[in-house]
Each structure stands twice: as C-alpha cells, then as structure tokens.
Amino acid sequence: APWRHEIVFHRGATGRADLLRAYADRGEAGLLATARALGFEARPERSNEESDLGGERAEPAAGNVEATAPLEVTPVPFWRLEEIDYREPAPTAEPVLASRPIGFAGLGQQPGEPPLPPSLAPAARLWPVLRQRLRSTVASRVVDAEALAELWSRGRGVRRLPFKPLPAWAPRITVLVDRSLRSIPFWDDQDRWLRQLRRHLGRATVHEVRRVEGYDLPWRDSRYRYRHLQVRPEEPVLALSDLGFLAGPSVVDVWRTVAHRLRRSGVQCHALVPCPRNRWEPSLAKLWGAIEWEQPQRTSRSLQVLDESTREARCDRLLTLLSFATRVEPALLRAVRRLLAATEADAATEADLWHHPAMGAGFSKTVSLAAEARPEFQSRFAALPDDLKRGVVATLRSWRAGQPREIWLEEVLALDTAAALPPGTLHKDEIAASRTLWRRIAETLDGSTQPHHEVARALNRYTRGAIRDRQPAAVWGDAALGSDLWRAWAAAWDGEGEPPLPAGVHPERWGGTGGVVRRWQLRQVGDCLRLFAPLSKTAPGSPVVEVDSANSLLGWRQQGASLAEPHPLAEAATVPLPRGPTLILETDHTSAVLRRLEMPRWANSIGRDHFGLWAAFAVGGVEQRLRWIPPGRFWMGSPENEGGRWGDEGPCRLVTLTRGYWLADTACTQALWEVVMGENPSRFQSPNRPVERVSWEDCQAFLAALNRRVEGLEVRLPTEAEWENGCRAGTETATYVGDLEILGERKAPVLNSIAWYGGNSGEDFELEGGVDTSDWPEVEYRNDRAGTHQVARKKANSWGLYDTLGNVYEWCSDRFARYDDVEEIKDPQGPKKG
C-alpha cells in the first residue's frame, strides 16, 4: 500500500508507536487495519519510474485529482481508565504475606552484570582493511620534486607548486545498514561498527542510510525519512549487509542492481558480510568487494558449499545447546554458538536458527524455543559430552546476570531434572532456590485466588506459560516438587473451568474448584470495545480495563444517562464507544469510568512510551513531566518479616484508589522551585538536584504559587496511599526490583540500581561542602563526602517514576495515621488532626 512508507498524522490521531505494535503482533494486515482505525491517511502513490539512486517525483496526470486525494478517515479517540470500584472486598492476604508472596517484581534481579556482547570480529582485524578500502588522497606540504622536474623538462611554466598526495580517509562515507529480519542476530554488530566509525571519523563524515525490506522506497536516512539513495562519486559506500546471501536469488538481484547503479555513477562499493564465504554468490561478492566480517577459517571443509541438510544439522546442533534456555537473545546465541567449532556452526547458523520453524514467538530482541519442539532437543542435550554441558550452563549463568531471577531459576529447575548434568555443574543453592520459587508461587496463589487480585492474575499467566511451555515432564517425578507445581498449576486455573493437563500429570490428580466470579478484559478494537478473557494471547486491540462479573452481564451508559440493557458477557462481544466524553461500565462486581484521552490545558506536551501515558508542563523555561497512575487496588504497608522494616509500617492493609491521578516522575527540582519561588533554600545547590530543607508549609506556598503560574494545573502533594501506590508500581516486595537484603548499616546492594542512599551517596558526588562521611561504619562505597544527587539518574520503576526510594525524603499531603484494625480502606485521606 502506498501509505506504508509515508504515514502522516490526521486530525489528532494517536502516535506511530501503536502502528509498530500492530505490525509486530499481526503483520501487514494488522498494520493496515490499525492505521485506518487510528485515523492515518495515505499519500499518493509514487511513480514506478523512480529509481533507487535518484530522480524527481513524477507529477500526476492532468485532471487526475481523485486518484491522489487523501483518504477521509474519522479519527478514533483513545480512552483512559480514570475511576474503578470493586464492590466486594478482596480476600485477606495475611497468610500469604506471612510467607513472603511473589509480587509483580518477583524475586528481583539475578546479581551481577552480564558480559559484554561478543562481536563478530575484533576491531584490530577490520580497521586496516577498511582504511585501505575507504581511502582518498589529500595534498601534503611536501613539494613533489619529480612532478616539478617533469613540468620544467617539458618547458611549461609553473604558477603553483605541485605537492605530494597523502592517503587519508574519504571526506564522506555512506554506510548502508541492512535492517532485514534475517539479519537480526547481526544488528548489534552493525550498531557497534557505526559507533566506532563515527567516533573515529566524526559524525559529519559517516552518513548512515538504512534499508528496510518490504518498502517500495527502501532507503531511510538517520532521521528515519525515506529517501532515494544519492551518492557522489568521491564518496565510497560501505554496506553492512549479507547482500542477500542468506535470503535467496530475488534479494541478491536487488543488491546486484544497486551495485551496478552505484558503479555506473563512479562510486566505490564495499561490504562487510557477516556470513562466511561458503554462502556467498561469487560474482556479487566481487562486485561489492565483499569483506568477510568474522575471522575466516581457511580449511577445505569450511570453504565447501553447504547443502540444505548440512545447514539443518548445524541448526539442530545449536538448538540442542539452547533447548533449556527460557529465552534466547542475540548475544547469548553467539556466546553458545562459539562453544562449537567453526565447522559445526558459523555466523550464518545464527541467522538460520533465529527464523527456524522450531523457534516459537520471537521479536527483534529475543526468541524462545517452541513448546512442542523442546522435548526432542532436550533429550539430545542429555547425550552431549560433559564438557559441553558445563560450558552451556556456565554461559547461561553468566548471561542471566542482571536479568529477573525467575528466568535463571526456571532454567536451573529444568536442567536439574532433565539434562543429566555432571555432579557440581549446578550449585546447591541454585537448585534449592529454584524449588523454593514454586513453593512461594503456590503459597501466593493459594492465598489470593479471587480473579480480581492483581498479583494472582500476573502469576496465573506466568505459571501457565512456565509449566505448560517451558518445563520438561521430568519435573513431576519428584514428589515434593511435583506437589508444589501442582498446587500452583491448579490455582492458576481456579475459577475458569477444567484446564488441559500438563505433560506428566495423571488425570486423577485434577480437581478444579469451579469458581463463580470471572474476570473479563475490555480491549479497544477500532471504534468499539470487545470482551476477551484476560489471558488471551491472540486478542486484538489495546487493553482498556478489566471487570469482574458473577452473573456474566455488563451494562454501560454515558454520564447522566440511564443504564443500557445488560449485555451478555461473551468472548469477542462488542461494546460500542459513545461520542460523548465519558463511558461508565457496570457489572455486579465492578463499576468503571472511562474518559476520552485529551491533552490537559496545563500541559505543553503529552505522549506514551513503554512506561505508559505522560504529560508535561513548563514554567519559566523549566519542564516537569508527570505520569498517569490508573486507579486500582494494592497492599499498603510492610509485612512483619520484611528487611528494613520500621515498627510503624504495618500492619498491611488493602487499599483501593478509585480515581487515577497524575504524579510527577521525579522529586521537585531546585530549578523548578527557584523559578516559582525566586529562591533556593537547598544545601546541595544544583539545578537538577531535588530541593531540600523545605518544610511542609513551604511546600504549600510553593504549590499555591505554581498553580497561579500554570493555568488549570491544580497541583497538590500526593496522599501517603497515592505516593506508596506510585512507588510500588504494582509490586509487593520491599523494593520495586525485589526483596531488600541489608548487609550492614549502610550496605544494601539491591538499592544501587534504583536509589541514592547512605551506602552509595558519595559516589560521583562533585559539590563542595558535602556531608563528612569519613567515619561512617558499614558503608558499601567508601567516600569522604556525600550528599544528594541529580534526579532521574537511577533506574525508574515500571510506571516511569524515578527516585521514589532514596535521595531525599518526600512530603505527603495527609497526617500520620494508624490502621491497626483495618483490613481494607478506600481512598484514604488521613486523619483531620495529628
């Protein structure tokens, strides 16, 4: 379709990120349908006579106005959940909290840092080759005596002395980056070499152009605009591409045509090719001056042309090594591949494996082995030599550093039960932790099986995928482990009928409870809402809200109108969206208020990213971003056995926030305070540091002044419940990356990635007059001075909020309250006195 390469906004429609999601989920058909639904319009088709190397846009024929008129599409608004009310209280979670439940952050991250991604070739090998290929000449200051003598001998006058030429890099280099799907394992290598070229030669010298297959105009510049490829003769071209050798004759012909056109224009062509020579088409490789990217293996076997059966055998060998990996990233794939000899698997095998039929769902960052293919390859893994098994386990362990611990513990459990590893390959504490994981999941689900409990829903999805798709049948052989797995599996399906039995379980063990209340998810699909089960993997559209119902009836109305006749809840049932600004949904267990998403009048920008919805306001040249926090229910407070707990942080209580709210993504900066108040009371003076040494009364004066400066803002301090809800961001652990392990008075390593605290506050502290920390005991990082740090320099939580832990204390709007005898509370505002 002609709109694919030149999409434009049309009357307030949403951003392009939603189109990318639609394309990733449902391909070309989904992209076309979503673009039309979101209000994008098409550009006129380009002329077929345009070439890849240049040319003017063809003018439309006279009188052919209708053929180029844009599509008239009414934009579809997006909706935001602003209020929700669950009419029945959630079950008490005291038994679960006492045994430390699994929250959204699970067990936190695996300690350590992953190794650097392995590159195809060291820079020391490729730099001399590229310097020779991408060279030009410049004049030196040394007179060329031979040329001068030649001129004089011919009796010619010399007006300007000739100088000797010196070899040098070309003044401008065009780099063609092939972003085809078959090259995904090499995308990091392409980016790494682009950075090295720009760092060495300068950004002005290196001109990046990307090629994305499937577009009529394939060349895209660094600003992601589609252009014709136009190169001057003195500019050499370097292609980071397989030149179609991994694809087939049709793609090879495209690169052959491009090379011929460039050479006819006098342009030098060169290519860094990731696949080895035995996959090259010789004439095209010569035309492009191909350079073998990875270190070549000059053996008779490595130069043999591989037939399809040999390539399939290499893929199977590599799939066997990765059969116990929960997910496979390009860097992990290369690290495991290099455990084999070059004659057993090469760089081209990485591309073959990434798109192998045995691979299940995947993206540009990670893929995973399909559930139906795992048993066969895992049985082959058990027969591998012990040295190779140890190498695979050590590689997996090193690459899981810094990733969620559940990934590694899942792999440990599968390896321990089905891989026949030599003794000592897995550590005893790893095996124990992998079994404890499922005991904690089972305890959590047993104590929170009501469908509207958010932690239970998240664990339901995780448990079904892990047990059904990724764990071998051998895990059911251990009686104690099998009991925990069965408890988790049964609880994950509780209330949704009888599930399919996992492999290895006898049917007599199933005893479903047949719960009454069921959760439904409403997703926006075009101009309507549709109902789906929350765990549906194929549901189209975007999630808007989840509602509970026991009688399977849903009613809706606009604000001020009467309730429509209840509609039966059924898979893919449709709820039409009104033209008004508000939609109220009603079931016997839930009431939810949806409103159209519009930019607030106080905002100067608004958008969505991987954290969610954000908006920003500006005052006096200082901008502050806020995040939309949706309504919901969460456990507030700290369990009695939690590390770092203060005595007044409990007991835990269930809190429901019925209204969504905007929350600043950082603490108030000194720059914002000073532009509003005209002064800066902080001790640690720095514009981007949080303001400190301000009282609660000072904050009230600041808020009043800020509201006068920004029309319609109506900003206030958050309540304690709103603050803790935003800080937790859906988690139930001591920090939003996992449990807190305190090793000393100022030593808690889990905080390093998310917070500035006593143990690391001296790191990179550059201001004069900091706090003297030379005599602080039990400090994780020893420094002489410490203080506050700039905001947003640590990892944000899953809702995009920075520094919710550490750096400075933060004021809340309400007074201190105790809830000793309260199990559930709604929209707490704190006591009126205190």
What report would you give on this structure?
The protein has 834 residues and is α+β, with helices and mostly antiparallel strands. 28% of the residues lie in helices and 17% in strands. The protein has a 6-stranded mixed β-sheet, sandwiched between helices. Strands 1-19-18-15-16 form a 5-stranded antiparallel β-sheet, with no helix packed on it.
Kindly summarize this structure in a few lines.
With 834 residues, the chain is an alpha+beta fold. It is built from 20 helices and 28 strands.
Describe the SSE topology.
Layout lengths: L16 H21 L27 H4 L10 E8 L7 H5 L24 H11 L1 E9 L1 H9 L9 E7 L3 E6 L8 H15 L4 E6 L7 E3 L15 E4 L8 H16 L4 E5 L8 H7 L1 E3 L15 H14 L8 H8 L9 H8 L4 E4 L4 E3 L4 H8 L4 H14 L5 H14 L9 H20 L6 H17 L8 H14 L25 E8 L2 E5 L9 E8 L3 E5 L9 E2 L5 E3 L5 E5 L3 E7 L8 E5 L2 E8 L2 E8 L2 E5 L16 E5 L3 E4 L5 H8 L18 H14 L10 H9 L42 E2 L12 E2 L37 E3 L8
Parallel strand pairs: 4-5, 4-7, 7-8, 8-9, 24-28
Antiparallel strand pairs: 1-19, 2-3, 5-6, 10-11, 12-13, 12-14, 13-17, 15-16, 15-18, 18-19, 20-21, 21-22, 22-25, 23-24, 26-27
Helix pairs in contact: 9-11, 9-12, 14-15, 15-17, 16-17
Strand order of the largest sheet: 6-5-4-7-8-9
Rg (CA only): 31 Å
What's the story with the biggest beta sheet?
A: 6 strands, mixed
Relative helix content: 25-40%
Helix count, per DSSP?
A: 20
Please give the number of β-strands.
Answer: 28
CA distance, first residue to last residue: 66 Å
Overall structural class, as computed from helix and strand content, comes to alpha+beta
Mean pLDDT: 78
Percentage of residues in strands: 15-25%
Spans of at least 5 consecutive residues with low confidence: 1-14, 44-75, 89-99, 221-226, 448-452, 506-515
Query: Shape from CA axes?
Result: globular
